[in-house]
Amino acid sequence: MTGSSVALLLAVLSGAAPPLAAQEIRPVVVASKPFGESYLLAEMFARLLEGRGFRVERRLGLGATEIAFGALRSGAADVYPEYTGTGLLAILKQPPSSDAQEVYARVAREFRDRYGVRWLPPLGFENTYAIAVRRETAARHRLATLSDLARVAPMLRAGLTPDFIGRADGLPGLRRAYGLRFAEVRALLPAIKYQALAAGEVDVIDGYSTDGLIARYDLVVLLDDRGFFPPYQAAALVGPGLVERLPGAVAALTELSGRLDVETMRRLNRRLEVDGEAAARVAEEALRSLGLLESGNSAERRDPGRAGFFEYFWEQREALARLTARHLLLVAVSLAAAIALALPLGLALERWRGSAEAVIRGVGLLQTLPSIALLAFMIPLLGIGTLPAIVALFLYSLYPILRNTYTGVRDAAPEAVGAARALGMTPRQILRHVRLPLAAPVIMAGIRTAAVINVGTATLAAFIGAGGLGDPIAAGLALSDSRMILSGALPAALLALMVDGALGAAERSVGPRGYRAPIQPA
Amino acid sequence: MSDQRDPSFALQAQGVSKRYGPVAALDVISLEVARGECVALIGESGSGKTTLLRCFNRLTEPDAGQVLVDGENVATLDPIALRRRMGYVPQDGGLLPHWRVGRNVALVPWLCRLADQTGLADRALRLVGMEPAVFGRRWPGELSGGQRQRVAVARALAAEPHVILLDEPFGALDAITRADLQATFQQLRAELELTVLLVTHDLHEAVLLGDRIGVMRAGRLEQIAPASELDAAPATAYVRELLRRSKVRV
After folding, report:
1. Residue A156 C-alpha from the chain's centroid
2. Of A239, A300, A522, B174, which is most buried by a Cβ count within 10 Å?
3. Where exactly are the structural domains of chain B?
4. Residue in A with minimal Cα distance to B98
5. CB neighbours of B21 closer than 8 A, spacing ≥ 6?
6. Which residues, 6 or more positions from A501, have their beta carbon under 8 angstroms from its beta carbon?
7. What is the block-wise mean pLDDT of chain A (522 residues), using blocks of 10 residues?
């Protein structure tokens, strides 16, 4: 029984894999990490390649450094913007150095030798960490440098990205270099740390020196007077496959090298993060003003800018419909696979009650894994994109279905089961004709729970490039654009309600007629 | 122990014992039920009467002794086939709540793949005084307790078994309904020449329906005899006390 369902599961999963492998020439997959500048640079890469006639697939907003680089290494992505300092410290895990040329030379050599990954010549600007405070905090404590900050830090609360708290070139290094000791350190996601600082919830945050939001919130960036932060030169990081497959694409990307200075980048980031312009439009105009894109050939689309939510939503309706369809696909395939495994397994466990609890608890452990961690574990095995997302969602859906199926058939009308046995029904007949139909509403309730969890969790699939309604949520968080967040979150919530409603109706219809199940699901 | 096969007995238990942990549910029990006879087993909860009944259709496997049905050792029979050829009525009816009355009654004919399953079910319903046209399409949840027990009796009779096992079949009914069902059953028994093993905790029911009454206590059969003999010559103090109390109650 379980053997055939595993086969079915594999068939479903392989059918769900993107049809990339079947195509003769794969498009260039351009990825980014989930923050504004990374989106913008990736969009510039993509538009540049499209302008040179290459087909491009965008996988923007991938989880973090490990996920984006993991995707590049495994060939799931071909290029994404990265910073030399991050490459040196976070990926190679080598000690920092303050010489920009030397750092670039080292990462270029080591990445080629170790991973077959190429650093294209730097884009021309550095984007280092910027420790920032509110203007009034700087004035009150007379803060201009990080050494000044170290003096008053025991009175201040820091809100730092989890990434920064852990990495050698982040808080641990700062402690050593400046003796920084904060009264309190809170882990804050990039998307909310500016608001938290502006609202006075924290006093110090880590930003990026080219950040548009630093200007938006009128923050003071403290000078790294001891030269602690290593150079973070931005560059295109190119995966091993692309160099052999499409050397022309690599050449096209190199046209951007040395063309973006800090001032340009800060201006572009500001348009993106402060003025709320679309990344695609900012990227396209930047390329055109650099003379890298023919002008006039692309139709001028109306940019919603900072328009109201409903106007924005209406503008994006086609894209959102596509994302919703994709979201539903992720949910439907992973849920179907989970039903195909958990339902027969739950029925089988009714016959093997001795091992039932152990098996169900084992599956329950999967539920306790944080989603983002599970998604990150998947990358070395399954790459990025649709397949690992579906596998993760499948794993999350197993437990409610398995638990309800087993409990439902085990506890189904004991007196009816007893009589059926005494009158000569075989155990298989009892399962098929008595236990299963009587347990159907309970099993449907489990499927319904799994489906609703699944719709919510599927929004995280954006972090591994599987698309769906998580895309605008991740992008909106990165660009701190609440319209964009809502344009993903609202349809996701509606979808959850609709799926719940539809399965609720199905649950009532599978209930045996004339008979009300003793366990009324909530 | 000698193997006393006698086909004139429909049911035989020979030195049957069954333990659940430290408790002896059946302590070397021997019992015969002749063809067409009704034996009522009476005793308190936990006396072993239901356990003994369940040995005959192999819902319980004894630790020692032999159980024979129509002279055949049940241990050598396929339990599924054995159960299908004996009627069975539990206390709560045990109707399948998601099957209509007609399908419930046709259960055993369906399991045995008999011809004309609907005809058999309709006939069985009429035997218990229920008109198939009225009740056949109803759900068990739409019936009264007494009607459900009638349907359960019909279900036990549908495949025309000659042995029927009843486990406190009327115990949960009110007095008037119970009396109705007892009368119906009494009539059916005579008409169909059924061999019956009946478990009950009600001495009046045992007296009314049983040709002989077996008094069980703590896994032992204290005495088995017609009601008049139990009254006239109780074998133990327990039997005497049981009869005396039930008379006081009347």
Report:
1. 31
2. A239
3. 1-86+162-250, 94-160
4. A512
5. none
6. none
7. 44 41 69 89 94 89 83 89 90 84 92 93 89 93 93 92 80 89 86 84 89 82 87 92 88 92 88 83 92 63 59 82 91 95 92 88 86 75 81 92 93 91 93 91 92 90 82 79 86 92 84 51 36
Task: Judge whether A514 is closer than 8 Å to chain B, CB to CB.
Answer: yes
| Residue in the block written with tokens 């027990």 | B149
- The whole-angstrom separation of Cα B220 and Cα B17 is 10
> What is this structure's pTM?
0.70
CA of A346 vs chain B CAs: smallest distance (Å): 21
Distance CA A207, CA A359 (A): 46
- Nearest C-alpha of chain B: how many angstroms from A437? 8
The CA-based diameter of chain B, rounded to the nearest angstrom, is 53
CB A443 within 8 A of CB A343: yes
Token pair of A380, please?
């070395």
Residue B174, class by beta-carbon neighbours within 10 Å (0-12 exposed, 13-18 middle, 19+ buried)?
A: exposed
- CATH architecture, range B1-86+162-250: 3-Layer(aba) Sandwich (3.40)
Alpha carbon B180 to its chain centroid, in Å, reads 18
A413 Cβ under 8 Å from any chain B Cβ: yes
**Yes or no, beta carbons of B111 and A423 under 8 Å apart:** yes
Alpha carbon B117 to its chain centroid, in Å, reads 23
CB A451 within 8 A of CB A443: no
